[in-house]
Each structure stands twice: as C-alpha cells, then as structure tokens.
Design goal:
The complex is a heterodimer of chains A (637) and B (367).
Chain A: H1 6-15, H2 17-20, H3 30-39, H4 66-89, H5 92-111, H6 119-128, H7 132-138, H8 148-177, E1 192-198, H9 202-215, E2 219-223, E3 226-231, H10 233-259, E4 261-268, E5 272-274, E6 282-285, E7 297-308, E8 318-329, E9 335-341, E10 346-348, E11 351-367, E12 373-378, E13 382-383, E14 390-396, E15 409-417, E16 438-447, E17 465-468, E18 478-481, E19 486-489, E20 494-512, H11 516-535, E21 539-547, E22 553-561, H12 567-582, H13 606-609
Antiparallel strand pairs in A: 1-22, 2-3, 3-21, 4-6, 4-20, 5-7, 7-8, 8-9, 10-11, 11-12, 11-20, 13-14, 14-15, 15-16, 16-17, 16-18, 19-20, 21-22
Chain B: H1 3-46, H2 53-59, H3 62-68, E1 89-90, H4 110-141, H5 149-169, H6 178-194, H7 210-247, H8 254-260, H9 266-299, H10 307-326, H11 334-357
The chains are: A alpha+beta (637), B mainly alpha (367).
Chain lengths: 637, 367
C-alpha cells in the first residue's frame, strides 16, 4: 500500500479494511489478499487509527493554456500539496518519527549543563570548552527544553496529535451512531469461528443470539440472516481521552511557564517576610507575569530546627529540617502557626512556600572606641560544605567612630564552624550541628564601598579601600572566638563580641505556577484513558442462522478482535456454549463432513498447541467443553 | 534504662538486622546458583529429545502448507454428537506464520522436566530468602529499602523474580525464561554486594515522604516487568531469525536448532512481550506523574528537566513509540522489537547511568 492513488485508497478502505489496521504484516500471499477482500467491511474501522496512505505529489494535472489555466493549475497544486503535507503530518508514521525525535532531542539536555538549572555549571563548561562552548550555545544546547528546535519537535507533534484526534473523534461518533457492520459472507474465514447444526428454527436462534449478545452488553443488531454485534467502544474513548489529555497537559505546562514566578528569601529566626517584590533576595518570573499576581501574605520565622545522623558512615546526613512559622493570609489575616518541612510546603491559595536551605547567623555586637554599641545583629552566613562551614561578612556602615572619635567604617571577614575540631585541625567544620561553635574573624577598617552605587554582595567584603587591623606582631588581626568571647581592636579602636545566642536562618522559595491543577487533571485522565485503551478489547461477533438444504438449521458464529487475542475465541466459545444449550445440536447425517469451502485444511492442530489446560467452561455439565485452541497458544500466555 | 542505653540497644538491633539481611542476600545468591545449575540441567537433558515443531511447520512441503491456512469447522464424533458442544476454531491472521510453540527448555524430556521443576522450586526458595533479605534490610534502616543503589538492586532483582513466579503461578507459559532470568539476577546481586554495597544509613529529608513508597516502589516494579518484557523481546528476535531462516530454506546450526525449537513461536514471544510492556505502561505513566507530584512538594516545581526526570520521560516516550509502532503499518515485528529494546536501554540508563555519570537532584540516591 505504498503508492495507492487517492481514489484507490477509498475503495481500499471500504473493501479491505483488514489490510489496513489488523493485518499490516505484509498480506502478501494471494489467499490472504482474497481473505481480506472477503471479510469486507467486517473488519473495517475496528479502530479509528489513521491508515497510512501516501499520496504522491504534483496534483495539478494538465495545465490549460493561458493565465486562467495557470491559475487553476497553481491552485490545484497548492491545495494538493497542502493536503499532502497535512496527511503526512497526521499519519501514524510521522507521529512515530516525531515521537522518536522527541525522545532523542531530550537527551542532550540531560548530559549538558542547562542554564535553567545551574548557571554556574554552564559558565564553567563555557570556560573549559572554548571551541565547543559557543557552538553549543548557538545550537541552544544549554537551553534544550526552550530551544527552537526542541519546541519545533513538540509543536509539530502536537499539531499532528490534534490533526489526528479531530478526525478520529468524528469517525468514532459516526461509528457510535451507525450499526455494527454486517456479517461477512464467509464467517469461517474469521480468526475465531464455530458452527453446528440444530433443529431450532433460524429465526429463534437469531432471536436468542440477539438477546444473549445484548445481555453481554454488546451493541447488537439483527440484519438479514445474521446478528452483528460489537463491544469495547470504551477502548476508543480511552484512547481519545488519553491523547486529548496530553494536549491539556502541554497547555497547562506552557501556561504555568508563562505566568509562574519564583522568588527566594533568606530569613533569620525572629524575622519576617511579606510577599511583595521588594522583599525578595532574587526573583524570576514568566514572561506574562505581573506583580498584581502576587498573593498577599506574610510570615515570621519563629524557629528553625535541624537534626543530623550522629554517627556511622553517613554521619552528618541531615535527618530533619523544620521551620516553625507564624503566618497570616491576606493583608491582615488571622495569625496561624505551621511547620514547613522539606516535603511539606506552606500553601496559600496556590502560592507555595518551600523550605530550601538553612545556615547559621551568629549574633555579634560591635562597640566603638568609647564602648558604645554601634552594631548588634544576627549575621547570616552562607554554608560552604555539608558540615555547614560558613562564610560571610560583617559590615558596620555608620555610627562607628574610632579611638580618635573620627568617623570610619568597619568590616569583618567571618568564617563560622558549628563544630570546630580543635586547635590542630583544619579550619573546616566537622559536623553540621552546633557542637563546638567557633567564629573566625578578620578585622578591617576604611571605606566599605557600599555608597558607590554598585550592587554588592552582603556576604563579601570589598577590601579595595580598606586596611587591615594589625595585631601585636604586626600581622593581620585574626582571631577564633568562642560564644561569649570578644576580640579587641588594637589601640582602643573598639571591640567585637560573638554573643552566646547563635541564630539559624532558613531559605525559602516562594513559587506560584498556575495551571498545575489542570496538569494534574490531564495526567490522571491520561492514566485512565491509557488503561482503557490498552486493557479493553474492541471486538465483533456475528451469529448467522440459516436453513440448510435438508431443512436443518446451520448456526455459525465468528469473532474478530482488533488484534489477535486469546480473549476473542474464549468469549466466543463461552457464548457458543450458551447458545448451543438453547439450540442443541442435531444428529449428523452420515455424509456430513466438515463443511467448508474447497480449500479445506487441517484444523489448527489442537494437540500440538494447547497443553491440557483447565478450561474455564469445565464447570458446565456437558461432557466435553468447547475446546478453545487459542491462536498460537495465546491461551497459555 | 537510660535513654542513651535505649538508643544504643536499638542501634545494636539494627546492626544485627543489617547483618542478618546481608547473610540472607548471600544465601539467596547461593540458592539462585543452585537454581541456575538446575536450569542448565533442564536445558541439557532437553537437548536429548528431538523436537522440531517449528521446523516441521515451516519446512513442510508448500502444498500442504497452503491448505493448512484455513481451518476446519466442527468435529462431530459419531452418535454422541448431540451431547457435544461446538468447538471454536481459530486461525492466524492472514500473512502471519502459523507455527506451534516449542515445548519449553526440557524439550519434552521427562528428566529434563524434573530438573526444570527442581529449578523452579529452588527459584521460589531463593526468592523467599531474598525477600527476607530485603525485608530485614528495611527493618534495619527503619524505612523503605530504596535509599541507595545497593538497596535498589536487591529489591529490583527480587521483584523481577517475583514477577516471573507470579506469571508461572498464573499458569502462563514462561518457564523457558528461567535460565535467562536467574543468570541476570545473579549478575545483579553480585554487582550489588561487591560494587554497590552501602551500609545502612538514613535518608536525606527530601526523601522523607510517603511518595517515596509510591513512586519508587512502582518504578522498581515497572523496571522489573519491563525487564521481563525485554527478555521476551530478545528471544523473539532470535526465534524470528530462526524461523525466517527456515522459511527461506536455510539450515540453522545444531545449537541454534536445539535452543530455538524449545522456545515458544516467535509470534507468541512477540505477543508476550507486547502484553507485558503494554500492561505496565500505564503504571509507568503513573510512576512519572507520582514523581512529578512529589517533586512539586519537595522542590517547588513538578517538572524541571532534572536528568532523572528527563530520562524517565525519554523512557516513557520510547515505550509510547513502541506501542505506536505496533499500530503502524510497516513497523510491526522486528522494528517494533528494536524500539522496545531501545526503550528498555533507556530505562537501564536511567537506573544506572544517570546515578553514576550525571549529577542532578536525584543523585543523592548515592552509588
Ligand atoms: C504526544 C505524543 C503521543 C503519545 C505520547 C502517544 C501515545 C500513545 C500510546 C501510549 C498509545 C497506546 C495505546 C494503544 O496502543 O492503544 C497510543 C495509541 C495511538 N495513538 Fe498516540 N501518542 C501520541 C501522539 C499521537 C499522534 C500524533 C497520533 C496521530 C497520528 C496518534 C495516534 C494514535 C493512535 C491512532 C493510537 C491507537 C492505535 C491503536 O488503535 O492501537 N498518537 N498513543
């Protein structure tokens, strides 16, 4: 079926439905081709999957002379090509290729650092690969999932998907409105078949068959000398629901990306936060976000608690992180208390507050030459390693006067070790909890550079215009302080005290991603749709009852599934058993050889295939249950 | 008793449980090894018999074969016809090969069959011991035993064997798979106890969630079932080549004949792996969605293209590809089978490769 013309396709569809969907496996031999023809419409449209038809290009046909001819030809050509392109795009084969490309295209993003996840890694990569870096950048490999080519793949896929769903839905609605296709002429050509002779009248048999099929919730319909029935439409419903759910999920995800925001805020115990743009340490948002979308709420971090594995090979691994907060919704809502843990964000009308990091904030007090307190606060320090060795800066900007009473600024470089190993160990913390806290300070004075207008990190000291204090040996003043200890600045320049109260801080991420509910709904629909689509068999059954030449009624039953399955013959055997009890077999005439057409063959050799299986029908009283030698031993699967 | 003493005691029990778990895993490996030899014996004894159903079906003279395609209708036996119920006759779809299934590894040989049964019994025993090993491990760490690669591996192989035994218990024709499965299970456990071994430890807070139970257990289960499907797919490819060779008049080697004749027909193998893959695909979809929900709770976004997430997605799309291929003209059979193997390779890479080669938020799973 590679180069069938447009017209052939239609007849092909009408006549040989089975060649399309059921039996794509090269129906080469002539018997098979004839079979297919004989099955007629019986197997057609057992699924609404598009057939793979390739329509050759150049549709303009003969070009009539003159401008009008040219116009007509061009028009035909354009429409033809557009249709061709559309058919290609919505064919199963192209959908398959696009799916394949999608998975292929997702790979580089998992192996190459991505800007969206870790910008420092990207910069690092750029630094290390001087030739490769810019090429990757051009190809969008640092931004795979928002790159033009990746978007192109999934957008094409989703256009293909829509182009696939819409006609399939119409087709399916048509099938639901219509009747199950009539019985094919030769039922014995179908994958599951049975027949017997009975004394019951043909009409009575058909009536019983109709009742039986309806009782089993087939859509059944008597037409002519046979009853036609079909069941399992939910399969198609599930399949369509699944594919539609994919679209819903994509739109929900895209929507979320456009309107989402994400901000970070570090809060020391005792401090608070209100959800306005200015309060954030850093803030990212989707391109359609506006500040009006910020949900009003506020909270205070009452207390942070972390516990750690005390011993063993994973000593120091965090066990619990919890932050106790008091929050209020709206601009002046009631105060409520909550614990925010790593997996348990605070959810305020869709805005979620996550606990993402933590560290220590030692409280220090700085006194000037006269002994007046000029600075006293908790200084959050940034962790450097998993044992929370931390670093930061203490900046005394105003209010300080030196020994001579002159205005000056003070700066301290701070290292903090929650668990100092002792005098002879490296200056790194040994454990994340406060076992033996030590604050290491280096003191400077001069111009902090905070008024220069350039943004400055609060964790780093800009020493360009600062001078270090010297100790008695003339070296840079630097001391390890224990809680409660004080470092004196030389020549009565003041002092700095490491207070006993060491606070902790918690980093929070506040995010809102609208459309999550839709994404979840889509996801659940997708699962159920998929399950229906994969577990439900769509199948057809025909029962024909006709008066034979000797006046005895011949009953024939046949079943056809979308794919060969053990269930179809099993179910057919089951129903045949019931119908047989209602229309019992008539005795044979001596010359009653198996009646089939000329090319009689052997029965699918039962003995070779079905091992002595316990048949499901064994319970019935008849001595020999209807044997159901399933297709190719499928029963034993 | 002081609090400190109580903690110490608890630690000691945990230590004992962890040691018990290790002993059980080693014992399970020993029993799996016995099962392995029993399966080998089954195959060896099976080779004495001369089964040649596939060859017979495919190399019988063409005239007879043509006639074999359509099937006969009723069989009425003499006077008892009235009491008999109608027989359903099935026939393969036009164009597909009508080949009977092989008899299994024992090849119809009685002694071989006996060894096969012994092998299955040993597999059951080993499974129970391994299950005990996983369970005691879980008790010793007081959480789900899926915190690191060692624990993943012992759970994974146990579940894979469980799936196999469940299929056997459901009277499915899967005994032929035993040798292949047990071999890989031994490799998997060997890798676990040597390279991947990690002493019991606690989980980082991000792993403290009931989603761990839901997401990780379904992920491991899906992997085990995908694995069983992949074994079927590989054997399908071999058997299909064998049948093709016979059809075109080729003469396969003696070893190939001996092995292939005992396996189910290629169509059956194909169908088996399709069923297995299709059956877990919705669960795999669920696994990813559950992971997304968990990520939403733990990290503030439900999807962020983290390497593990990305590879789950790639695996998912690859299996979707496979299912599509089965419904696309010209893609059934071998091509679809290759896609299924690629999809399983993606799963494997996600399982091992991402943990080892790529760093991401999931890497705390630890090697
Ligand atoms: C976003 C990408 C897609 C995914 C993840 C996807 C996934 C799936 C899955 C898992 C199935 C298996 C269900 C079954 O075998 O019954 C399926 C079936 C199907 N898909 Fe898709 N699909 C996608 C796009 C498409 C497109 C673009 C088309 C249209 C050309 C399409 C048409 C079909 C059809 C017709 C079936 C049913 C085949 C049958 O009856 O067996 N799908 N799809």
């Amino acid at each position: 079926m590679s180069t069938t013309r447009d017209t052939d396709v239609r007849t092909g569809e009408a006549a040989g439905g089975t060649t399309g969907q059921e039996n794509d496996t090269a129906a080469t031999d002539t018997a098979a081709a004839r079979d297919a023809g004989e099955l007629g419409a019986a197997g057609a449209q057992l699924s609404t999957a598009p057939r793979d038809t390739v329509v050759p290009g150049s549709f303009g046909g003969v070009r009539a002379p003159g401008a009008a001819g040219w116009l007509a030809w061009t028009g035909r050509e354009i429409v033809g090509w557009a249709r061709w392109f559309w058919r290609q795009l919505t064919s199963m084969r192209v959908a398959l290729i696009l799916l394949f490309l999608l998975s292929l295209g997702a790979i580089p993003g998992s192996l190459i650092p991505q800007t969206g996840q870790d910008e420092t890694k990207v910069a690092d990569f750029m630094g290390r690969h001087e030739t490769l870096g810019p090429i990757y950048e051009k190809l969008g490999l640092f931004n795979v999932y928002s790159s033009a080519w990746f978007s192109a793949i999934y957008i094409l896929l989703f256009i293909s998907l829509i182009g696939c769903i819409v006609p399939r839905t119409w087709q399916f609605v048509g099938q639901l409105r219509g009747r199950p296709p009539g019985a094919p002429r030769r039922l014995n050509r179908l994958p599951a078949y049975t027949t017997w002779r009975t004394e019951a009248a043909p009409e009575a048999v058909r009536e019983e068959a109709l009742k039986l099929l309806k009782r089993r919730r087939f859509r059944a319909d008597a037409a002519g000398d046979a009853v036609a029935a079909e069941k399992g439409y939910l399969r198609e419903v599930g399949n369509l629901a699944f594919h539609i759910a994919l679209i819903v999920m994509l739109i929900a995800f895209a929507w979320g990306q456009l309107f989402k925001y994400e901000g970070n805020k570090l809060i020391v115990e005792g401090d608070g936060f209100a959800n306005t743009l200015t309060q954030y340490d850093d803030f990212k948002s989707g391109s359609l976000f506006s500040t009006d979308d910020l949900e009003p709420f506020s909270f205070v971090l009452d207390n942070f608690r972390g516990t750690y594995e005390p011993s063993g090979p994973n000593k120091g691994t965090p066990r619990t992180y919890e932050s106790h907060v008091t929050y209020s919704e709206g601009s002046d809502g009631k105060e409520k208390q909550r614990t925010i843990k790593v997996n348990e964000p605070l959810d305020i009308a869709g805005t979620k507050v996550y606990l993402v990091s933590h560290g220590y904030a030692p409280v220090v007090t700085v006194r000037d030459g006269k002994g007046d307190v000029v600075y006293s606060q908790a200084v959050p320090l940034l962790p450097l390693d998993s044992n929370v060795t931390s670093t930061g800066a203490i900046k005394v900007m105003d209010g300080y006067r030196d020994a001579q009473g002159k205005k000056d600024q003070l700066g301290f470089r701070a290292f903090f070790l929650p668990a100092y190993g002792g005098a002879n160990t490296a200056v790194v913390s040994q454990f994340p909890a406060l076992l033996n806290p030590v604050l290491n300070l280096e003191a400077f004075h001069g111009d902090l550079g905070v008024d220069s207008g350039l943004p400055q990190s609060v964790y780093q000291l800009d020493k360009k215009n600062m001078k270090g204090f010297k100790d008695s040996k003339g070296k840079q003043l630097r001391e390890n302080l224990k809680p409660g200890e004080t470092m004196k600045l030389p020549n009565g320049a003041g002092s700095i005290t490491f207070e006993k109260d060491i606070k902790e801080w918690a980093g929070f991420q506040v995010t809102e991603q609208p459309g999550s509910g839709w994404a979840l709904a889509g996801a659940l629909t997708a699962i159920f749709g998929l399950a229906a689509s994969l577990f439900i068999q769509r199948r057809r059954v025909w029962v024909r009852a006709t008066a034979g030449p000797d006046g005895v009624t011949v009953v024939e039953m046949a079943g056809l599934g979308r794919s060969e399955s053990a269930k179809v013959p099993e179910e057919l055997g089951d129903m045949a058993g019931i119908l047989y009890d209602l229309a019992p077999g008539a005795p044979d005439t001596p010359d009653d050889t198996p009646e089939t057409d000329a090319d009689t063959g052997t029965s699918a050799d039962t003995d070779a295939k079905s091992e002595p299986d316990p048949e499901p029908e064994a319970k019935t009283s008849t001595p020999e249950p209807p044997a159901v030698p399933a297709a190719e031993g499928a029963e034993t699967k | 008793m002081t609090l400190a003493a109580a903690t110490e005691l608890a630690a000691a029990t945990n230590e004992n449980l962890a040691n018990l778990s290790n002993t059980l895993i080693y014992s399970a490996m020993a029993v799996y090894t016995l099962a392995f030899f029993a399966y080998i014996a089954e195959w060896l004894f099976g080779s004495r018999s001369k089964v040649g159903r596939t060859a017979a079906a495919l190399t019988a003279d063409k005239g007879a074969k043509k006639a074999a395609a359509p099937a006969v209708t009723v069989k009425n036996a003499g006077g008892t016809a009235v009491l008999e119920r109608p027989k359903v006759v099935t026939r393969a779809a036009p164009g597909s090969r009508d080949v009977p299934d092989g008899p299994g590894a024992h090849g119809g040989d009685e002694q071989g069959d006996l060894y096969g049964r012994i092998a299955v019994s040993l597999t059951v025993l080993a499974f129970l011991i391994a299950f005990g090993g996983v369970l005691t491990r879980a008790l010793s760490v007081q959480r789900a035993p899926w915190g690191n690669m060692y624990e993943f591996n012992i759970t994974f192989s146990t579940v894979a064997v469980g799936v196999y035994l469940a299929l056997l218990a459901m009277k499915k024709n899967v005994r032929w798979m035993g040798l292949f499965l047990v071999t890989t299970v031994l490799l998997d456990l060997g890798l676990a106890v040597t390279v991947l071994y990690t002493a019991s430890d606690q989980l980082v807070p991000a792993l403290h969630s009931y989603w761990l139970y839901i997401h990780v257990s379904t992920a491991i289960f899906c992997g085990a079932v995908f694995y069983v499907g992949a074994v079927g797919t590989i054997l399908y490819l071999f058997k299909d080549s064998y049948e093709n060779k016979l059809t075109t008049g080729g003469k396969p080697g003696r070893f190939a004949t001996s092995v292939m004749e005992r396996l189910p027909a290629s169509a059956s193998l194909d169908k088996f792996s399709y069923r297995v893959n299709a059956a877990v695909f919705p669960l795999w979809t669920f696994t990813i969605i559950a992971g997304a929900i968990w990520a939403g709770d733990a990290w503030g976004r439900y999807w962020g293209w983290d390497p593990k997430e990305t590879w789950s997605f790639i695996t998912w799309v690859a299996y979707a590809c496979y299912l599509h291929a089965r419904a696309t003209a010209g893609w059934k059979g071998r091509k679809a089978a290759y896609i299924a193997l690629i999809a399983f390779a993606c799963w494997l890479f996600n399982y091992y490769g991402v943990n080892i080669f790529v760093t991401g938020k999931h890497s705390y799973a630890g090697v």
